[in-house]
Design brief:
The protein is mainly β and 429 residues long. 5% of the residues lie in helices and 38% in strands. The protein has one domain: YVTN repeat-like/Quinoprotein amine dehydrogenase (Methylamine Dehydrogenase, Chain H), CATH 2.130.10.10. Strand 32 and strand 33 form a beta hairpin. The chain is globular.
Amino acid sequence: MGTGRRFVIRLRLLAAVAAVLMLGLGLVLQPGCTLFETPTTSSSTETTATTAPGSTSTVSTGGTGSTDSTTTGGTTPSGGIISGAPMFRADLTRSGVYPGPAPAALTGAAWKVKLGKDKNSLSWSAPAVVDGVVFVGATDKNLYALDAATGAQKWSEPFKTGGEIWSSPAVVDGTVYVGSSDRSLHAVEASSGAEKWKFSAKGAIVSSPAVAEGVVYVGAGDGTLYAIEAGSGSAKWSFKGGHDISSSPAVAVGTVYVGSADDFLYAVEAATGKEKWRYRTAGDVWSTPAVGEGTVYVGSYDMQLHAVSADTGEVKWTFKTEGGVVSSPAVADGKVFVGSLDGRVYALDAQNGAEVWRFTTGGKVWSSPVIAGTVVYVGSADDHVYALDVKTGSELWKFKTEAEVWSSLAVAGGMVFVGSLDGNLYALK
């Protein structure tokens, strides 16, 4: 991709993020106004992070790219054999662990599909894959349903929202739930693309919904975490944070965990919306928390990965990188994997935060690592998707797209599905 095109994309992304924040807050700035709202006081526990420096070991890179291929076609069904990725980060705890199978070796792209007719349409939304269909949103305001085996359109036409889609869909019991910058959460029939209901929030919804026991949990740009009845779209409760909630909620043991741009990680009772505790970092929390073995792991723009007690919010350890941590962590086999805007992917001991390995890409890592089998998959702003050995961090393969890869990935049916800022969705095998 040319430098001019890349510069335009970066400018557009910055403008889009700013617009989403403004939409979410519902503010027009006047002289003397501040963009951030001071968090309200609470009787719940508040804890604050400490800093732990990272180590300095490195892992060399290597490998070659592959040649992509494009499949076009009609509406031939795939038979519903490719499945296992129903929501952002794979499951309700946002573990980032997919059942697989997954390709340890790469033969190329099974297909790629341009999302939208607008050449400036971007693919940041992470795909969900259920019953042979890939569901993914794009900045052209559309939600797409594609045949997982061929990339062919499954619906007669994409589902149109009123704003750009940065949220990643969740698919549960035949319904697709997705947020939009039109300040709405949309519930769509998975088989046809027909809208079932729409919930209106007071801010843009960049957060990706979690669906648990008949309730949809999602954050919004107005600083609110919403709980919505999955069947009807009616509000169950709402919880007010101090600023934009673009982080996606994780749900575990009756508790919803979510980050906010007010620097806090919140724990809220799933049944009532009552705050249990809040943990303060030193930067915006756009990262989505992952919950495992009684610990919540979350990144912050303060350049750290934080590990806190799921019960109390007390800090267990922190790990310092050299860039903001917008990436969401994956938790598997006693390790935590996370990317940083310093261009690296880190593997840490889940118990104490000690560094196990690091891998250096050629660009910032906005993408969130995912695990399938013995492989870590992650995208980078150097235009590549990487496959790394889960134990050593050594490169197994890399695939070059036509622009930066900010999207998180999904793994299902022996394929890796990922969007790129070139506007394409790729199926790699």
